Amino acid sequence: VVGGGLAGLASACVLGARGYDVVLFDKNPWLGGKAAVLSEGGWRFDMGPTILLMPSVLARIFAEAGRDLKDELDLIPLDPQWRSFFDDGTVLDLHADRARMAEALDAFAGPEAGGQYGKFLDYSERLDDISKRFYFWKSIGSVRDMFDPSATFNVAMLGDLLKMRPWSTVGRTVRSFVKDARVAQMLDHFTQYVGSSPDLSPAILCGIAHMQTGEGVWYPRGGTRAVAEAL
To answer: What is the dihedral sign for C-alpha 167, 121, 83, 223?
Structure first.
């Protein structure tokens, strides 16, 4: 396996668990890639990501090797998941609980804001379902690997394609549901995970909102570095 980042470590773990002899190569003197750590003056700083989404993915990797994720990592649930500070001095927390978040939004941006957010989450859930059915758990080398040619022109398949809004972006899609500019800006922030701009990211990435509210946001005790060390 070339590259000892989180993806390389995960690949090595799964291959090893399936009986392969694995050699892992990396140019750095540490494993974990972007999950590096800086220790200075008695302090420790994560140099890459600081939170963890979808622990079910890690659980699946550890299960391949007959390990329980709970025995390997101490994951702390975070609530609120984010705290957003806006130019006008207002502050808005993002909560995983849908009802609590809707109530907070109604108080923050008016009586329709909570309902708008709920409709956006419903849409996000549909996108999350599409991604899991077509590519999230698959090895994708090209677009052809995502689709079954015999079902390409199936009505349900075309319906899924339309739901993905291939003509739109995250930014435009968020604003088609959410009218308050501050709330929309907060929801734009889901694209941080792919390092892209909401105005350049495809609408399918709105599905990240459901991934996050569904499984929550977690902090690995010891920092993200602890994930690499556990792997």
So the answer is: negative
Report residue 106 as tokens.
């109604």
The span from the CA of 25 to the CA of 231, in Å, is 15
Continuous segment of H or E residues that includes residue 16: helix 6-17
Question: Which has more pLDDT, 183 or 96?
Answer: 183
- 143 or 78, higher pLDDT: 78
Q: What is residue 216's predicted lDDT score, i.e. its pLDDT?
A: 93
CB 75 within 8 A of CB 218: yes
For residue 80, is the peptide bond before it cis, meaning its omega torsion is within 30 degrees of 0?
Answer: yes
Report the predicted TM-score, pTM, of the whole model to 2 decimal places: 0.82
Phi, psi of 218 (to 5 degrees): -130, 150
Q: How far apart are CA 71 and CA 52, in angstroms?
A: 17
Q: Give me the phi and psi of 71, to 5 degrees please.
A: -85, -20
Burial status of residue 105 (CB atoms within 10 A of its CB: 0-12, 13-18, 19 or more):
buried
Which residues make beta-bridge pairs with 53?
A: 217
Whether pLDDT at 9 is above 90: yes
Please give the DSSP secondary-structure letter assigned to residue 93.
E
| pLDDT for res 149 | 61
Q: Considering Cα of 121, then 122, then 126, then 129, what sign does the dihedral take?
A: positive
The predicted structure's pLDDT at residue 101: 95
With residue 137 as reference, give the H or E element that holds it. Answer: none
